[in-house]
Amino acid sequence: MFYHIKELQYNAKPSQPDPVYAKKLQEILGGQYGEMSVMMQYLFQGWNCRAEGKYRDMILDIGTEEMAHVEMIATMIAQLLDGAPAGDQDQAAQDPAVEAVLGGMNPQHAIVSGLGAQPNDSAGYPWTARYTIASGNLLADFRANLNAESQGRLQVCRLYEMTTDPSVRDMLSFLIARDTMHQNQWMAAIEELEQTQGSVVPSTFNPQFEKQEVSYSFMNYSEGEDSRTGRWASGQTMDGQGHFEYIQNPESMGQKPSLNPAPSYIHGTPPVEMRKMQTTRDQIDPRMQI
Known about the structure:
Number of strands: 2
Largest sheet: 2 strands, parallel
CATH architecture of the largest domain: Up-down Bundle
Radius of gyration: 27 Å
Family: Belongs to the manganese catalase family.
Strand content: under 5%
Structural class: mainly alpha
Cofactor: Mn(2+); Ca(2+)
CATH topology of the largest domain: Ferritin
CATH class of the largest domain: Mainly Alpha
Shape: extended
Order of helices and strands: HHHHHHHHHEEH
Distance between the termini: 61 Å
Protein name: Mn-containing catalase
Pfam families: Mn_catalase
Organism: Halobacillus alkaliphilus
């Protein structure tokens, strides 16, 4: 159960309206790495967590905080849209000064949401639960969370550079700081889990069913050997269970694919016709292949 506190977690009031920036701010609200995504990701990870104790509690702590961030950004977007009625869009076509301010405004902010935030990204695409990950494996999920916080902090920092409004920057600086904490938090939790579960997910899979001769082989499938100098190409593996092997020219280990003809009701091209096409093309130009 959640209780709503009327005060925001942190101030979210711009110095002046800016409908164009409101459109940009939608990305960290309803984008793939926005606050709605991490909010739902953490909450479902917590609700689905079958291990009571500190991990479940921690996940729900941060998930609840992300709800506060959604509210902050939605409030900021609404106030950035103050004084920007739909009629100003018509003026923008005639007044270059107004166009500079409102020309890039998201028209749906006026037409659909009544000068309010939307659960969309900056391009207008609606938020989707497909952005979220809640697998039931805490180590896998925490790594996904670290990625989400890394991408989210990157986007907030970029948005910080796109405005000179000191009040907007103040709110963004708070979010950047919390993303710093959250990245450190997930890294700490990952390190702790790796001490008991190992570094490879899942740790419960029987290694005898794994093709172990290629478990630690780095295969170079591009021109040059620059990748040879990386940590991943030599020395002990990160899980401590082997040593990296660098393979410059990896050989094919599979068969040449040969598919059975499709049944007649699929109405594909019969194999005999494909061979005729190949023969005809080879006669025209032997270098041409299907």
